[in-house]
């Protein structure tokens, strides 16, 4: 019997439980009630159909309290590449721009305030080929490269903060970088990936160095945000530092393939949201990418499994987008929930950071 490819974990659950069971599953496993789906405009549904992308929208509420609600709408985009990887690099990039523009237009029409794209979104992820020179045009300047210019216009047009994870070229030195563009289209800052994978077919250490930007939190118009790039999600202290530095929302743009840690995907960012009392937004690439290495004509193929999702600080999470289709996930959240969860569980009071600081210092000095 042929096993059908699985479109999403949530689809399996939905198709195999009756409505009462599904309600209980959502309550126990996701902390979700039936009432957290946001209604999409007809034009959004039509845009998704026309351009072949999925759109889903949810909200997370906070309790009423003395502070006014702090409502923010975030958008996560997962997308496949468009052209074969042997096409000229500027053509490949422009084709991705065309596709992503439609998704951003749709996000804007739904009132998204902060949008994040997947890891190295404007390029085919050639970092698995071991080749560099052949693909060097994909690397670009953080604050004036083609991606910045393209997104800056959209950010300004829609008063949207946009997080743009790219392959950065800084005077010939490459970094895996997330650029933050403010709602006026200006460059606000960047974060360079702290932890580089050297596992399985992931070997990025030959391309760039571990980031040198620490754990910046960007005070945008809408929220204090940070970016934990891909493999950094396996490091609990990476998540911790963004929280200690004041983030309300941490984005995790990723490029991670099927058959490789997929079972971690739904756990790590969700756990980080609970452990650090902030929202986490996980975005994975989607689709297949084939490369023929220039040196020895070897074929390298990769498939990414999408499944982007958002978790609130109380551990409640959205379903994932599909494993195989472009998609836009929209989530409205009340940032008051961060402080509410922290206070409710007494996380600040019971934290004991000084104890950890001492033990970490001793461990590091005895290494
Ligand atoms: N790009 C990247 O960091 N990939 C690592 C894959 C993973 O950690 O799942």
TrEMBL record:
<dbReference type="Pfam" id="PF00795">
    <property type="entry name" value="CN_hydrolase"/>
</dbReference>
<dbReference type="InterPro" id="IPR036526">
    <property type="entry name" value="C-N_Hydrolase_sf"/>
</dbReference>
<dbReference type="InterPro" id="IPR003010">
    <property type="entry name" value="C-N_Hydrolase"/>
</dbReference>
<protein>
    <recommendedName>
        <fullName>CN hydrolase domain-containing protein</fullName>
    </recommendedName>
</protein>
<keyword id="KW-0378">Hydrolase</keyword>
<dbReference type="InterPro" id="IPR050345">
    <property type="entry name" value="Aliph_Amidase/BUP"/>
</dbReference>
<dbReference type="GO" id="GO:0033396">
    <property type="term" value="P:beta-alanine biosynthetic process via 3-ureidopropionate"/>
</dbReference>
<feature type="domain" description="CN hydrolase">
    <location>
        <begin position="72"/>
        <end position="335"/>
    </location>
</feature>
<dbReference type="GO" id="GO:0003837">
    <property type="term" value="F:beta-ureidopropionase activity"/>
</dbReference>
């Amino acid at each position: 019997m042929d096993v059908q490819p699985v479109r999403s974990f949530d689809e399996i659950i939905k198709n195999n439980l009756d409505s009462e069971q599904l309600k209980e599953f959502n309550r126990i496993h996701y902390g979700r009630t039936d009432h957290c789906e946001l209604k999409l405009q007809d034009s959004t549904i039509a845009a998704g159909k026309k351009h072949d992308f999925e759109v889903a929208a949810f909200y997370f509420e906070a309790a009423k309290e003395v502070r006014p609600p702090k409502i923010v709408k975030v958008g996560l985009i997962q997308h496949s590449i468009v052209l074969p990887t042997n096409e000229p690099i500027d053509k490949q990039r422009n084709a991705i721009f065309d596709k992503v523009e439609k998704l951003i237009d749709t996000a804007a029409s739904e009132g998204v305030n902060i949008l994040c794209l997947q890891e190295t979104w404007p390029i085919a992820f050639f970092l698995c080929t071991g080749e560099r020179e052949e693909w060097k045009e994909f690397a670009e300047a953080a604050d004036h490269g083609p991606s910045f210019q393209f997104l800056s216009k959209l950010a300004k047009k829609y008063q949207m903060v946009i997080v743009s994870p790219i392959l950065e070229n800084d005077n010939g030195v490459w970094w895996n970088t997330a650029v933050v563009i403010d709602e006026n289209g200006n460059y606000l800052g960047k974060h360079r990936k702290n932890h580089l994978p050297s596992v399985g077919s992931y070997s990025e250490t030959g391309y760039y160095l571990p980031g040198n930007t620490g754990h910046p939190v960007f005070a945008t118009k809408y929220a204090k945000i940070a970016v934990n790039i891909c493999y950094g999600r396996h490091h609990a202290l990476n998540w911790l530092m963004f929280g200690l530095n004041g983030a309300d929302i941490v984005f995790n743009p990723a490029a991670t393939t099927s058959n490789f840690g997929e079972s971690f995907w739904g756990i790590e960012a969700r756990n980080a949201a609970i452990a650090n009392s902030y929202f986490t937004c996980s975005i994975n690439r989607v689709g297949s990418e084939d490369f023929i290495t220039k040196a020895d004509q070897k074929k390298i193929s990769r498939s990414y499994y999408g499944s982007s999702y958002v978790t609130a600080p109380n551990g409640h999470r959205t379903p994932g987008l599909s494993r195989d289709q472009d998609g836009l996930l929209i989530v409205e959240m009340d940032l008051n929930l961060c402080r509410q969860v922290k206070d409710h569980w007494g996380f600040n009071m019971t934290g004991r950071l000084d104890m950890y600081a001492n033990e970490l210092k001793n461990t590091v000095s005895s290494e």
